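Lecture 7 notes: from sequence to structure.

We start with a single chain of 430 residues. Read the sequence below before looking at the structure.
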Amino acid sequence: MAKPKLGVEIDFANGPAFGYPFLLNDPNFGILDENILADAPADIVDISAQVRRCSTRRGRNRILANFEAGTATVVLNDPNSDFNPQNTSSPYYGKLLPLRKIRIYADQDRGDGIIQRYFMFSGYITSYDTNFYQGTNEDATVTLQCADGFRLLANVATGAAPLTVDNLNTVQLSGARVNSLLDFATWPVGLRNIDTGDSAMQVDPGGERNVLQAIQTIEQSEFGAFYIQPTGVARFLDRTDVSELADVGPRLFSDLVNVGLPYINLDIAFDDQLILNDVSVTRVGGTTQTVEDQDSIDTYFYKSGQRTGILVQTDQEANDQARMLLAARKNAELRVDSMTLSLSTDNNSLNVAGLTTDIYRLIYVYKTMPGGSTVEKELFVQGVQHDVTPTAWTTKFFTQEPIIQAFILDSATQGILGLTDPPNNNTLSY
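Now the structure, written as tokens:
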């Protein structure tokens, strides 16, 4: 029984790929399809002993918003000024350059005596900020500000003209289009996990943008998801995968004794923020598709939402997307916006859950409310935040109910037709 142990490593080698060598039979670096060949020899330095505090944040706050760049802040004790780029006696002199690779991880006993490594963040150092605290002796600290692979993709401009390379001038399924855009940005093949896609994309439309913006247009067109995983892998989920992830057995968190895993805080809200009852979706070259729900308008007044510039092939598919948005957002619902865990415990099951629950993991939250009522919600994790100091480790999950409650044949929970008690929410999605 043990708390997680924080680890931080910097790889000063060039290139975007994380250069951890594949080691046969090693529990951390001998994992097929996870450990990859680097694009440059690794030059890895373990700085874990110098870390004073660390915070990471990945994901998004709202399920209809784009994913944001993952970020990390690492504060180091630097008494010898090793992280001063002008210090010629530093062991890192000449290596302290922007966009060097960094990985943040936790080593945790799984409960069977085996220490497992769980990555929390893989990205690139954007700045080295030095601070001094005056006292009996000067004590220098360095703050590493970091961003994940979104930063690199956002740095690659496409130009105004339509792209005609890597099959971007042909009709492609959404997954193939994402891969073509990653090829354009020379993103490593080993740092990709891209679904095939359900919707065919029009030829590249052009326009002033960067590669990340172009991929996020595909993400919205597909009604899927694109984000960077904790290992640094670019992940694209298509609509089918998002639907099926809502049918995976959820991980239970509860405030009941000996029921599920404990949390320390829930952020519960009931408001009009997510209501949509007048939805318009427009594809490139198409006619705007608008759908409304009069009962919702009568109750909440008009709450309009627009999505434009998507690259689907037909107006019918744009209409399908508008109707799905309307069905999911026409009514006000009690929400659980976030849940916070404390991993400063000797509860191995809780610690492992806190370190392995990631974006699009399905969870079930149970809360006993004053007055005898309860809140019970099945939720997708949409963002993950870790805050670590020498005395505390808190993990926050930003959550949202699945927006695609698709009918899935033979599923015990997503394959129910007809009226049920409680009411069945499964719908035939496009």
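Helices lie at 150-154, 174-184, 211-222, 239-245, 294-300, 315-329, 348-356. Keep this in mind for problem set 3.
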